[in-house]
Amino acid sequence: MAASSTVAASAGPARPAQSFWQRVRGGDEIALGITFLSAFSVLFVTGMIVWELWANSSLPRHQFGWSFLVTQTWDPVAGQFGALPFIYGTLVTSALAMLIGIPLGVGAAIFLAEFAPPKISDALTFLIELLAAVPSVIYGLLGIFILIPILRTIEPALRSVLGWTPLFKGPFYGVSLFSAGVVLSVMIVPFIISISREVIRAVPNEQREAALALGATRWETVWDAVIPFASKGIVGSIFLALARSLGETMAVTMVIGNDPKIKASLFAPGYSIAAVIANEFTEATGQPYTEALIELGLVLFAVTIVINGVARILVATAERGKM
Amino acid sequence: MTNGLLLRRKAVNAVMLTITGLCAFLAAGVLVYILGYLFVHGAASLNWNFFTKLPTPVGETGGGMANAIVGSAKLVMIASCVGIPIGFLAGVYLAEFGGGTFSFLVRYVTDLLNGVPSIVIGIFAYTVIVLPQKHFSALAGGLALGVMMIPIAVRSTEEFLRAVPVSLREGAVALGATKAKSILTVVIPAAKNGIITGIMLNLARVSGETAPLLFTSFSNRYWSEGLSQPTAALPVMIFTYAIAPYEDWHQQAWSAGFVLLTLVLAVNVIARLILARRKHVAR
Amino acid sequence: MTRRLFGAALTLALAAGTASAQNVLINGAGATFPYPMYSKWFDEYHKKFPTLQFNYQSIGSGGGIQQVTQGTVDFGATDGPMNDMQLKDFEAKHGGPVLHFPTVMGADVPVYNIPGVTGQLNFTGEALAGIFLGKIAKWNDPELMKVNPGVTLPAKDIVVVHRSDGSGTTYIWVDYLCKVSKEWETKVGRGTSVNWPVGLGGKGNEGVSGQVKQTPYSIGYVELIFARQNKMSFGKVKNASGAFVEASLASVTADAASAVKEMPDDFRVSITNSPGKDSYPISSFTWLLVPAKIPDATKKKAITGFLTWMMTDGQTMAAALDYAPLPKAVVAKEQKALAKIQ
């Protein structure tokens, strides 16, 4: 049984360091090695994906260059391809999903972790986690059969309240950026709730007890003593949710309207990168067309990099601000 | 003046309790509605045939999705063998050994990987496995799903390991354990609940994925043999049947959705039961 | 305990996967339009020869062309014939050509949802092109009123619905529009996916029909079988000889019959807008794509056997599923072409 070198080092005068093989038997090196390899393989797999995307999109990259990002036309017959409408649709729907999903998800997680009686909390969380198992296609169908009729009925109300903004103008056909954003928010909420709840629960009780002892109300305890500890985990779950909403394919394509045009109104139909790839890849023939679709995948990758970077910077500044 | 402040704090308390409660019930309400809808539309036409028979051509009743159920199970098992170990171990690295630029990079890239659309991962598996092999296979589908499992496994493992208080780790080290041993015997068991949650979420999400399978495991009208033949899977069947023109197929699509959900629920329940039993076993 | 359970589950799964040497699995992919017909055929053929398993999946015509070219499937299926570039691509990869075999015929119909209008509307080719180009924007446009004398068309905007996914159905539709409208041909062109000037995109026939059903004053295009199965109102279209014809098995076959006289040897022909007073102009063949060189002898025998059966016994099953069977002249020509498979 190899003795821990840390204990040995902190006790009295220096002892001879363990031999390499003794340390290996202790397991630290092996543990480090195996886990490091796994972490590296994540980089490796992602790298392979990016490389494949890059290699298989050479034609449009050379043909269009940077203009691919700002062109609005998507014409497979004429061979003209541009990514802008899809980037727009992806960003708008994900932003909407986050706007709805984050407050809803974090609020629900707080309630389930702190305020709800344990049995109800467990049962509800269990059920909410099940939502993650609903296949994307079913969300799409539910979007068509349940959500869009509901949105049709509340559309006049929305229009009367918010119709003065350019966001809610124009005719509403049911399928729209708005519908897609709402469907996405329903899809990502289980992730946020599930993970946030666990992380909040994991905050040691001493924190809560200390705050309560100082006379805080239950809400103040949660907000000031518990959440700061759990904030990193909550933010982590939000990143997961964001990533999922950027890449979500099937449900989005069934409710977004699939119209590659950029309009200011949320009521207008739109198109997202994942949706157009899903719709057209199976039928795309010919190198320029197929490769243009693959280049779109690359573009989404780039968009994800940028958004993740911006989000991380925002979080880092917020944390520094708190200190 | 203190009274006023106290009243305000109490009011805020009450309001926030209500708001968060509303959030929770809204979320739960949506779920119950969805489950109810699936139940009404799906369970109604569920019969023994569904679980035992192969699909029949349109217009002929008595068909089922037996091969899709087995196919889905096969694919998810392959995916788990790849995704969970890699994701879990990488998460352990980030939580226990990490800290420098490498860890930052891995975390960043994990989030990127999570954002790759499922169809792009399918296309990737297609170019890397299916094309060289010149045939569709369950293996390709399972591997595509496995890649999708990695990011969630990494993120959730890391978050829950991090949530384990430092005091536990220090206690283990103080008792003489090596870092590896303390991770294995103290930290991971303490984070067990969360890690299992993460795995369940992962399995749930991946078993409902359609797009990555379209180009990898394809689909199969018959029983799939071994790992190198195309195989049917529940989400693909749902997709095919839902966008078809036949009412009978729509019914089957809802049934399949219901069955898929129930199977995931069952796995969830079994896992938690096993966890709970372990707790009671005297160590 | 858990370990034993897991081990048992694993063995079961692998056992379920042990290959049985006799079954021959033949994979095919392609058009969604003939899927009900093919699945019926393959099922019947499997009953005759239980060891032969034809696994056909409808991933779309383009997908069928792609996969058969890549060699990941043994045969393909498409609603729109392969063009010369695609044929060259196939030959380069396989060292031998790919053969087209027409199987059945079908049609695209214009479906609409106009509250208050219950009868069947008439459409000219130019009107349809105008609507889908966005130039005819209202239902009470003079072009539409001209050919529908007894009907009061409302002064409402037309909501156009098209396919968002690439599809053979789209190919048939735009192929027809190209033939009746020069403007469409230059501005949009033909393909399984095009740059639609106006309209919402629905995924699959279901998406389009669902969208049309839910959106008042909308118009879309779906396959005849689909419209029939879902009891949707669809219009008559003016054919090249000037008559307004409703899509039916008879009118589709009539459309093919007139095109058959000039049928090329490789069967790649577009039959939209063919002359003949009974023809329905938006009709099309659908083809199976079979490589001329099939190295595996068992597969070759299975495929040629199936094709022979399909051209004779198989055709008798088409009408029941709302597909138009092939004209006899085409069948005769196909039987000769079978010899090309080696």
Task: Describe what this molecule looks like in 3D.
The complex is a heterotrimer of chains A (323), B (283) and C (342). Chain A is an all-alpha fold and 323 residues long. Chain A has 13 helices and two strands, in the order ααααββααααααααα. Chain A has helices at residues 5-10, 20-26, 28-55, 58-64, 84-115, 118-131, 136-162, 177-201, 205-213, 218-247, 250-255, 273-281, 287-322; strands spanning 74-75, 80-81. In chain A, helix 5 (84-115) runs antiparallel to helix 10, helix 7 crosses helix 8 (177-201) and helix 9 (205-213) runs antiparallel to helix 10 (218-247). The two termini of chain A are 44 Å apart. The model of chain A is unreliable at 1-12 (pLDDT under 50). Chain B has a single domain (67-282), classed as MetI-like (MetI-like fold). Chain B has helices at 2-42, 48-52, 66-97, 101-115, 118-133, 138-162, 166-174, 179-190, 192-207, 211-214, 234-242, 247-280. In chain C, the strands form two sheets. An eight-stranded mixed beta sheet of chain C has the order 2-1-3-11-4-8-6-7. Chain C is of the alpha/beta class. In chain C, 40% of the residues lie in helices and 19% in strands. Chain C has helices spanning 2-15, 35-48, 61-70, 84-94, 125-133, 142-147, 168-180, 182-187, 204-214, 224-229, 249-260, 297-311, 328-337, and strands at 24-30, 52-58, 75-78, 98-113, 122-123, 159-163, 200-202, 218-223, 236-238, 244-245, 283-291. Chains in contact: A-B, A-C, B-C. The interface between A and B is large, with 103 and 109 residues.
Label this structure with key terms.
heterotrimer; A: 323 residues; mainly alpha; MetI-like fold; two-stranded antiparallel sheet; 13 helices; 2 strands; 73% helix; 1% strand; disordered N terminus; C: 342 residues; alpha/beta; eight-stranded mixed β-sheet; three-stranded mixed β-sheet; elongated
Describe, in short, the structure shown:
The complex is a heterotrimer of chains A (323), B (283) and C (342). Chain B is mainly α and 283 residues long.
Layout of strands and helices, then pairs:
The complex is a heterotrimer of chains A (323), B (283) and C (342).
Chain A lengths: L4 H6 L9 H7 L1 H28 L2 H7 L9 E2 L4 E2 L2 H32 L2 H14 L4 H27 L14 H25 L3 H9 L4 H30 L2 H6 L17 H9 L5 H36 L1
Antiparallel strand pairs in A: 1-2
Chain B lengths: L1 H41 L5 H5 L13 H32 L3 H15 L2 H16 L4 H25 L3 H9 L4 H12 L1 H16 L3 H4 L19 H9 L4 H34 L3
Helix pairs in contact in B: 1-12, 3-6, 3-9, 4-6, 5-6, 6-9, 7-8, 9-12, 11-12
Chain C lengths: L1 H14 L8 E7 L4 H14 L3 E7 L2 H10 L4 E4 L5 H11 L3 E16 L8 E2 L1 H9 L8 H6 L11 E5 L4 H13 L1 H6 L12 E3 L1 H11 L3 E6 H6 L6 E3 L5 E2 L3 H12 L22 E9 L5 H15 L16 H10 L5
Parallel strand pairs in C: 1-2, 1-3, 5-9, 6-7, 6-8
Antiparallel strand pairs in C: 3-11, 4-8, 4-11, 9-10
Helix pairs in contact in C: 3-4, 5-7
